[in-house]
Design a protein that fits this description.
- The complex is a heterodimer of chains A (709) and B (382).
- Chain A has 19 helices and 30 strands.
- Chain A has 709 residues and is of the alpha/beta class.
- The two termini of chain A are 32 Å apart.
- The relative contact order of chain A is 0.10.
- Chain B contains 19 helices and 1 strand.
- With 382 residues, chain B is an all-alpha fold.
- Chain B is elongated.
- The two termini of chain B are 33 Å apart.
- Chains A and B meet through strand 16, strand 18 and strand 19 of A and strand 1, helix 1 and helix 3 of B.
- Strand 19 of chain A pairs parallel with strand 1 of chain B, so a sheet runs across the interface.
């Protein structure tokens, strides 16, 4: 199957002023097929390309602006489109009319042409079309998610382990204000929502039930649900919203506060129940509690304090102080480490403050003892009142921590995934991936988290979460049925293919996949669940025998691009540096550097990659044996506070560097020639210095002795 | 050992009721202490007093020298980000203190409640009316040239005032002692010997040294109230002392030299009296004007503030009026005016320990305490 190429060299936006476009076009033939030039291909001249595609050109090389812009202009569904970035990364970031700038442009054009020669448009996988949304957990977040999905037209199954819906939300006596003037406590809307969700015909509510196993993929999950005593049911769903909520931290953590030891020490959930029943009283003798202390237990070094903090405890204490203040002679004392009342909640805080019977102070409770009559004596240090104080109270209310249910088996979905039954969680056990960039997304595609299983939060936030996760679930179903990837490569139709004859069944791809997309069949060969795949290419980077490829992204393509670069020999002033740049952060940062007209060495040759994790170590070996003097890998921050869009990519490249160093050693090359660098999307200003320093290091090490071999 | 605190909601409500209702808004940022001229690192005034009042810690809030070292410059009010009006809270605490330490307690209450006003005027009225009745002046005014001592003999006035002021001085001393003891109880130390600091403290008062330092402390860019305070108070202070000196001179003149009143208008003592009276009136007008025109920065004005300023003003004015109607020879007006003047003098002087005038007792005690302990406000400028 011969490919028919078209190469379109644009001279607009300063490209023509910086490079010799005529010479460039000449260099494109004959490999580039039909070569055309324009002062602005993004305007009417886009028609020229469309006409060529109509005439049978199936691979289009647009040598113009960055592939991150004008995507819709240069979209020709019948052809593979390769964008060569002559604007941001050549004309705007290097000296004009310089032989190195010209060489850079020519290399980029050749790299684009060889990639276009090898790539083809993908054919999407569209086999999984189930549209039902499964919501696990019938608390505030779950009910809201079910309602939201049902209102959007999706059939919904709502599974709740208790025999009634509502979870903790139902047990709240009141909620703190959600509306101006943020002063009066409000009734929750949980009861109304429960009624509504039960009345909707498109929502199947399964009470007293648990999800025991989940297999399959987005658009086609097979879920086994076990009822209390009854036989289990198997259903097919398209996507899952996990809203299994929170559990209070175990009581024994609060022994130093007397929880479980003294009757008049209760938790905030106990107080909700008390308020719902009527008066706030002392459990020891039923007498009215006139002096009630709220301890937020959020001090530094407090072993009851969870490593993550939130505003929930602060706001709940303020709310419950108002329960206490139903009786005018009662006082509420709140001791906090941090009073956190962000946003509009500040108005609520101010409003509670105006009540003289609510007394607030920073303070750490160092001791608690019981009097003979059941009263409690608190010893508090670090107060604002000066010196340590003692205080006699009738009732102590502890803000016990909210632990996500994912830390226990309850939150587990019984995933029939090779990588394990449990949902991977962030460091505190929350079912989430990157809380800023991808809220609601777990590391299992098609499973979205909502509510306190994701982050300690209040009722209003949990409801917002429910709505958001429902939308994510629906989006996942829509995308899956069209064979498209979900976030972050939304709409990508490609997926990895496996050249199975050469597979050694090492299983590394199945282990390194951040999303557990790959299973092993009985012959220990990898099997892809296409809709679980986020198309990052980490498997491609992992495979030791390079059998994993996408239609438009493969080791072979990247290797050919590396080989397309002209390496000047015997010129110490013209080193060549290969840069693999993560397309999510580093590559946009390089574009941004161009937009800001920041200059960096023209000796770099940048290849955008889906994720640093998709860089197979053989490519680095290829680059150095080809004569590149150095290789830089620009990726995101790995580790606990990772910024990698695919969670583990930048972490994996670190482990692959072991191999690379070994290769370098075998070739008798200096280890400094290959370096991994962290670049965030906002760090364009750092790039020139970073790359210049690297070029200096390479110059100091000297030219690659492999040149010319 | 941690000290036991007993939050007293009633006390908190009482302070709020003394026109300090914004105190609940305080969130302890400490801006007030940063701008307050008498605050120091070890004594974050008035931040700590704010939290004490918020927690109803009555003993701590009242047994504390700082509230009386404060001269109400109002800088904290200008800078408070929450408009908690710390200066108003301090003024309310002083107000409350006067009633709290008052001996007898009842008098403290009476001076803070308008419903007792008739009683407070009734006491001197009954005394003087009784004397007048006994002299027969209730039915017929003395004939001839207007001479006030013919109406109410100097001796009768001297005896009445000496007795009444004597009693009230006992009350003042007891109040001061109670305040001192409260401070000792709070700071946990006893046996401070204030005697060696008395002279220095008196000189401080005469020079208004603390007042001046409060005034001079640069706070920042915001407008504050304090600009005129030092000068105005100096004026009223020496004006009042001038009036006291006039009265004393007259007494000495009568008893030591038999130099009977009325003295001629050009007499130096007369001139001193008139000039002093004018000084007091001018200063009072400034104080009243500031309170009315700029209530935010001047701080709150409660019943006891208005009462004190009004009584002082009316005392001085009735003194002038009495003189003028005497010189104008308006007999039927002069004697009643003099009577009213005496009532106001009685009110002003005899009720000193219970009215806002009690600041001369408590502020002096606080200054003595500070001087002898050195724990309370060491001025930052040293």
């Amino acid at each position: 199957m011969g490919k028919k190429l078209g190469t379109y060299v644009c001279s607009g936006c300063g490209i023509g002023a910086a490079v010799d476009v005529e010479k460039l076009s000449a260099a494109a033939s004959p490999r580039g097929g039909v070569v055309r030039r324009s002062a602005a291909f993004c305007l009417e001249d886009a028609q020229l390309i469309a006409a060529d595609v109509e005439q049978g050109v199936d691979s289009v090389v647009v040598a113009a602006c960055s592939g991150r812009v004008n995507r819709d202009v240069f979209r020709f569904p019948a052809a593979f489109v390769e964008r060569v970035n002559l604007r941001e990364q050549v004309a705007w970031s290097h000296p004009p009319n310089h032989d190195e700038t010209q060489a850079l442009a020519e290399d980029y054009l050749q790299m684009g042409i060889v990639r276009a020669q090898k790539a083809s448009p993908p054919s999407p996988y569209t086999e999984a079309n189930e549209r039902t949304v499964l919501v696990v957990g019938g608390g505030a977040a779950g009910i809201t998610a079910a309602l939201s999905a049902a209102r959007s037209g999706a059939p919904v199954v709502l599974v709740e382990k208790e025999t009634a819906l509502g979870g903790y939300a139902r047990r709240l006596h009141r909620q703190y204000p959600t509306r101006p003037p943020y002063a009066a406590l409000e009734e929750t809307d949980v009861a109304a929502k429960i009624r509504e969700v039960q009345s909707l015909p498109s929502v199947g509510v399964m009470l007293g039930s648990r999800v025991v196993s989940v297999s399959g993929q987005p658009g086609n999950f097979t879920v086994t649900i076990a009822g209390e005593g009854s036989a289990s049911a198997e259903i097919t769903v398209g996507a899952i919203v996990l809203a299994t909520g929170w559990r209070p931290e175990p009581t024994d953590k609060y022994e130093r506060y007397g929880l479980g030891l003294h009757k008049n020490v209760v938790t905030s959930m106990d107080l909700e129940a008390m308020a719902a029943r009527g008066a706030i009283t002392r459990p020891s003798d039923g007498r009215p509690a006139n002096r009630v202390a709220f301890l937020l237990c959020d001090g530094q070094g407090d072993d009851a304090h969870l490593p993550y903090g939130g505003n929930v405890t602060s706001l709940v204490a303020l709310k419950q102080a108002l329960y206490v203040r139903q009786r005018t002679e009662a006082s509420a004392y709140i001791f906090y480490g941090d009073m956190q009342t962000p946003g509009q909640h500040e108005y609520f805080y101010r409003s509670v403050q105006t009540d003289p019977g609510v007394m607030l102070s920073q303070g750490q409770v160092r001791g608690l003892s019981e009097e003979r009559d059941g009263s409690l004596v608190l010893e508090v240090s670090d107060t604002l009142m000066g010196g340590d104080i003692r205080l006699v109270v009738d009732l102590v209310v502890l803000s016990t921590g909210m632990v996500p249910s994912t830390v226990e088996s309850e939150g587990a979905l019984g995933l029939q995934y090779l990588q394990g039954q449990n949902l991977p969680t962030t460091k505190f056990g929350f079912a989430d991936s990157h809380f800023i960039c991808f809220p609601y997304e777990t590391r299992r595609t098609g499973i979205y988290s909502a509510g306190t299983v994701r982050q300690a939060m209040d009722l209003t936030m949990a409801e917002r979460d429910g709505r958001a996760a429902a939308l994510k679930a629906i989006q996942s179903i829509e995308k899956s049925s069209a064979g498209q990837a979900v976030h972050p490569r939304v709409g990508d139709l490609s997926y990895p293919g496996f050249f199975m004859q050469k597979c050694t069944s090492c299983g590394r791809c199945t282990q390194e996949c951040p999303f557990g997309a790959l299973e092993l069949n009985e012959k220990k060969n990898p099997v892809l669940n296409t809709n679980r795949c986020r198309r990052c290419g980490i498997c491609m980077g992992a495979c030791p025998v390079q059998i994993i490829s996408f239609n438009d992204y493969s080791v072979d393509m990247l290797s050919s691009m590396i080989k397309a670069v002209e390496i000047p020999e015997d010129d110490e002033d013209k080193p060549r540096i290969l840069v693999f740049a993560c397309e999510n952060d580093a590559y946009p940062a390089l574009d941004m550097a161009g937009i800001q007209r920041l200059q960096y060495p023209a000796s770099v040759r940048v290849i955008p990659v889906r994720c640093l994790g998709s860089v197979n170590s053989i490519l680095i070996a290829d680059a150095v044996s080809r004569g590149f003097d150095g290789v830089a890998l620009l990726g995101c921050r790995p580790g606990e506070d990772y910024q990698c869009h695919f969670i583990r990519g930048s972490e994996l490249i670190e482990t692959r560097m072991e191999n690379v160093r070994e290769t370098l050693g075998r070739l008798a090359l200096e280890p400094e020639r290959v370096q991994v660098m962290e670049v965030a999307i906002s760090e364009a200003d750092r790039l020139p210095a970073l790359l210049t320093q690297f070029v200096d290091v390479i110059k100091a090490v000297g030219p690659n002795p492999m040149k010319g071999f | 050992m941690a000290t036991l605190i007993e939050p007293d909601l009633g006390f908190k409500r009482a302070i709020i009721g003394l026109d300090a209702h914004d105190l609940t808004a305080c969130y302890q940022c400490g801006t007030c202490s940063a701008v307050c001229p008498i605050s120091s690192a070890g004594n974050p005034f008035p931040r700590k007093e704010m939290v004490w009042v918020q927690w109803g810690l009555k003993d701590r809030a009242l047994g504390n020298a700082s509230i009386w070292m404060c001269h109400q410059c109002g800088t904290c009010n200008s800078y408070c980000p929450r408009d908690a009006q710390p200066a108003n809270v301090m003024a309310a605490l002083r107000d409350y203190s006067i009633g709290h330490y008052a001996v007898p307690r009842f008098m403290g209450r009476a001076l803070n409640d308008p419903k007792y006003l008739p009683l407070l005027f009734g006491i001197p009225a009954v005394i003087f009316l009784a004397i007048l009745g006994w002299l027969g002046h209730l039915t017929s005014l003395p004939e001839g040239r207007i001479v006030f001592s013919k109406f109410l003999p100097i001796m009768a006035i001297e005896v009445t005032f000496t007795l009444a002021i004597g009693l009230s001085m006992i009350g003042a001393v007891m109040g001061g002692v109670r305040y001192w003891r409260a401070m000792s109880a709070q700071s946990g130390s006893n046996g401070h010997d204030p005697r060696q600091h008395v002279i220095a403290t008196v000189f401080d008062i005469l020079r208004h040294r603390k007042f001046r330092e409060c005034n001079e402390e640069p706070a920042g860019t915001r407008k504050t109230y304090k600009g005129h305070l030092h000068a105005t108070h100096l004026l009223i202070f020496y004006g009042f002392l001038g009036l006291v000196a006039t009265t004393t001179s007259v007494g000495v003149g009568i008893y030591a030299f038999g130099y009977l009143t009325p003295w001629p208008f050009w007499h130096p003592v007369k001139i001193l009296g008139n000039v002093s009276g004018a000084a007091v009136i001018i200063a009072l007008c400034v104080f009243l004007w500031r309170r009315i025109a700029d209530s935010t920065r001047a701080g709150k004005s409660t019943y006891s503030d208005w009462l004190f300023l009004t009584i002082l003003l009316l005392t001085t004015l009735t003194g002038f009026f009495s003189q003028w109607v005497r010189l104008a020879d308006l007999r039927t007006l002069a004697y009643p005016m003099y009577f009213v003047h005496l009532l106001f003098i009685f009110f002003l002087l005899v009720y000193i320990p219970y009215s806002k005038f009690a600041h001369l007792v408590y502020r002096t005690v606080a200054m003595l305490w500070s001087a002898s302990t050195r724990t309370e406000p060491a001025l930052r400028r040293g």
